[in-house]
Amino acid sequence: MRLAQLLAEAAAAGLHNQRLHAQYRSLASQLQSALSRRVRVEQAKGMLAERWNTGVDQAFAALRRYARRHRMTLDEVAARAVEGSLDRDGLDAERPRSV
Question: What is the pLDDT, as a whole number, of residue 21?
């Protein structure tokens, strides 16, 4: 009987550890995805700030306006801006104008 109890406890501990491991893997994947999205947005901000000779805050605002206007996620707009497949005229229309 004692052996059966020890085996049951070992099995329970193994299942618990497996669940924890799966949760941590999922969390790590989510964090990696969030970091990748953040990097794309930062790349797009830098690229636009350089192209337009403006600050990164203005470039970010333009990306955000374009995303809202076209009902796209900011990450999608940033990725397409970096790869060059975004409507450049549409994006340039969001460019901040000097006063």
Answer: 92
